[in-house]
Amino acid sequence: MIRGAFNRFRQGLKKTREGFVDKLQGLFGGGKVRLDEDTLDRIEELLISADMGVKSAVAITRNIEKRLKEEGGEATLASVLEVIRRDVQEILMTATPKLKPLSWDVEDDSGPKKKKKKKGAGSTPGEGVGDVPVPAVSDLRVIFVVGVNGTGKTTSIAKLAHMLKQDGRKVLLAAADTFRAAAVEQLQIWAGRVGVDCISQGKGADPAAVVFDALSAAEARGMDVLIVDTAGRLHTKTNLMAELGKVARVIRRRTGRDPETLLVVDGNTGQNGLSQARIFAETIPVQGLILTKLDGTAKGGIVVAIAETMGLPVAYVGMGEKVEDFAVFDAEQFTEALFAGWSAEQEQEPEE
Ligand SMILES: Nc1nc2c(ncn2[C@@H]2O[C@H](COP(=O)(O)OP(=O)(O)OP(=O)(O)O)[C@@H](O)[C@H]2O)c(=O)[nH]1
Ligand SMILES: [Mg+2]
């Protein structure tokens, strides 16, 4: 299982590894290199070009200088990579949320006339919202998948459904992206492939009504997990909160808990994708990320930039178009895979 994930990361990160490690290797040419200003600048540039984010790239380069200059100012590729690998792992494992915690109550349907009694009210299990009675907390896990259009929400939902199903969970999908008829069809097709049911109402339906239906179906059928697809075409922050907030509050009223909200980030879109994702995370409560399309990019270092700017945990990673091209994120394995293959020793398969 663990080995499977490592190999998947290794395969998925091939382009990043080649783009980064191979170029670094070029800098060293097999021997020792003097860590002068110029070399350090070039290392920093390489880190930035792998999309690690400027702040992390500068910090890592400084660490390379500090730790390796003590050894006489010369370094091998292996020693530099070791510093980078350790720093990256440390950044990923110690990241803390950088964004202000949000509540689904910030803008309620009732408009701005009354102030909420308490910040974050109702965001924990069993708490009621306003005058709504406290419902029994249901065991149903509701995963709410949000993100800019085209980032890979629908595909990731299929992959996640497949993974959870393999794990023995009963999974149901809700087609709450009612913006385009094709979006509903796409989710239905994926549901068929994965072998799970999908609740839909068609184009133009109220997403909150679709989710209401799906919650009833999930409860009646004894489902373990409901995964909700949403539209990405929500241009303004007000739209985002109005539409997604309405659905989230339906979920809370029915289950007694806020949905587990996962924001999908396209690894291919680099810093630009990251700033779009940030708008989502600054507007609605997000618990974690799904990072997609890592297979198609040499910029897998984006996980470091995510840790640096958002500090939200990456929950899952998508690395291809097939349902199996998906893994639970693991910082240690991810980092090992990112740097695997740069020496004969690392090239060997890990022991079971
Ligand atoms: N290579 C690769 N392609 C992916 C991955 N995830 C998604 N895609 C592709 O990205 C495209 C968009 O994916 P969708 O799942 O439709 O994205 P979406 O966010 O649901 O898009 P909208 O519904 O338009 O908002 C599709 O062509 C997918 O096959 C991935 O991990 N790797
Ligand atoms: Mg979609």
Structural description of this entry:
The protein has 352 residues and is of the alpha/beta class. The protein folds into two domains: 2-96 and 339-347, Up-down Bundle (Four Helix Bundle (Hemerythrin (Met), subunit A)); 141-284, P-loop containing nucleotide triphosphate hydrolases (Rossmann fold, 3-Layer(aba) Sandwich), CATH 3.40.50.300. It is 48% helix and 12% strand. The strands form two sheets. It has an eight-stranded mixed sheet, with helices on both faces. Strands 1-2 form a two-stranded antiparallel sheet. Strand 4 (171-175), helix 7 (181-194) and strand 5 form a beta-alpha-beta unit. The longest helix has 19 residues, at 237-255. Magnesium ion binds at residues 153-154, 177, 183, 229.
Q: Keyphrases for this structure?
A:
352 residues, alpha/beta, Four Helix Bundle (Hemerythrin (Met), subunit A), Rossmann fold, 8-stranded mixed sheet, two-stranded antiparallel ribbon, 10 strands, disordered C terminus, binds guanosine-5'-triphosphate, binds magnesium ion
- What is the C-alpha radius of gyration, as a whole number of Å? 22 Å
Gross geometry: elongated
CATH class of the largest domain: Alpha Beta
| Spatial sequence of strands, sheet with the most strands | 5-4-6-3-7-8-9-10
- How many beta-strand segments? 10
CATH topology of the largest domain: Rossmann fold
Mean pLDDT: 87
Q: Report the sheet with the most strands, covering strand number, pairing sense and barrel closure.
A: 8 strands, mixed
Uncertain residue ranges: 108-129, 343-352
**How many discrete structural domains?**
2
Number of helices: 13
Helical content band: 40-55%
What structural class do helix, strand and pairing data support? alpha/beta
The end-to-end span amounts to 10 Å
Q: List the ions, cofactors and other small molecules found in this model.
A: guanosine-5'-triphosphate, magnesium ion
